[in-house]
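User:
Care to share a sequence and structure tokens?

Assistant:
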Amino acid sequence: MKRTWLSKVGLLSLLWIVLVSPSWAGQVVTKDARLWAKKALAEEKALPTLTAPNTLAVLYFQNKTGQSGLDPLQKGLTLMLITDLSAVKGLQILERVKLQALVEEMGLGASGLVEAGTAPRVGKLLGAQWLVGGDILEGKLEQLKIEANTLDVPTSKMLGPSLTEGKLTELFRLEKELLFEIIKLLKIDVNPEEERALKKLCTTNLRALTDLFRGVEASDRGNYEKAAEYYEKALKEDPNICIAKGALDQLKDLGLIKAPKRSREMLRSLRERTSLTDQLSPEDATKRERTLKDVPATVQIDLFFP
């Protein structure tokens, strides 16, 4: 009995180390991630019911609008929320690639992932205390309605819904509203300085953001050359867009793409332009912060539609 208890503790410890290990950072579902998913499912019954405190996983959103052109938002919203929630002090955010590895191993799509009974199971497999997921719905007057739900995994109780509505061109605002509603549900206090930091945008360029989403999707399909193309397009639109440079670097570091001379030169240039070091003055750093004020009031966008 003692050995069984120790093995469960050891399994939980291994699960925690794997899920939060910095070396796993990136958007590529690696062989290690897939092996972890296989092992987690194979030993699911032996997994303890304990969850790591203050850990949160963001599930994929379901596109219920009937518009397939909005499918990039299913993973895109998740990616945006993970990026922002990772900056909240006291929270441990589980990496998206672990979720993707589980999706593939369980044979689930974005819709099946949040079906009744599935979410608590995924939460247990991930060792998360909280799960966030939701739906993308049609709102009034060609608007989108996004509903997120936060689940407390140990009790299987919903903490409450988070709702926001607006046009596709207001995606930045919609995501930030969800972010702060989730923080409120988790009863996390943020001071004014932290709030200002959380309001910073990944980018103010919707085309760059769309290319980033498409790059992640291509990477999940194993089409790494296409993923690199999308990441490069995103960086061309906005050299300071979050995630894209790191994702592109990871593809190269793992030897998944061939980098021609011009790409190497571009990456070197991007490193020089985006690296925040002590050599930068406070003014330079401030110029790179994007908030909702930087988004044009009217933006023509047909990016998500064929």
Observations:
- The first helix runs from residue 2 to 20.
- Strands lie at 55-58, 62-63, 92-93, 130-138, 144-152, 157-166.
- Residues 1-24, 275-287, 298-303 have pLDDT under 50 and may be disordered.
